[in-house]
Amino acid sequence: MPRRVTQLLVGLFLYGAGCALTVEAGLGVDPWTVFAQGLSVRTGVGIGWITNIVGFFVLLLWIPLRQKPGVGTVANILLVGTSMQLTLAVVPPVSGLFAQVALLLGGIAVVAVASGLYIGAHFGPGPRDGLMTGMHARLGWPIWLCRALVELSVLAIGWLLGGTVGVGTVLFAVLIGPLVHVALPLLDTRRNPRASADEPAEAAQSAA
Description:
By secondary structure, the chain is an all-alpha fold. The chain contains eleven helices and no strands. Residues about 195-208 have low confidence and may be disordered.
């Protein structure tokens, strides 16, 4: 249990930090961060705080889907955005394509390791992942379709609101699944890599 709790907390903190690095790279971010960034642009509220608020409202959507949150779900809402906000306060934006790409790839790598940590702790899915698995359970739609509908919707809305969409958005989508696929078996507290190998595709891209 101590290891699982530590993994959960460290993983969620690193997840937010990794997302913050992709924001500072300025080359595009994952769909949910695009959405949070767009809302931040429009409201003036920090993107990290917006991430926490969005997580709370996404959790409310679990009610009609009859999903039950776990400790990890609540911790996700409280910690990921807070970590993102703190990281943005201390890490300045970078300039120059090489530095931007390096920061972007570093952020994606941190998110992948963080995903392996918090998913491997087995304290429940993040609010966004639970939304998509809940849609799958209640509506019978394939997971990939639920994910595509939700993430394309928030991506489009976030972009219209002023969020950053670019090569980083594409790289995040392409790289995060394979990277978490490698990280999760190494960090799974249940020590069952074969069973765990199927989880990243369902949970990796939207913990924040």
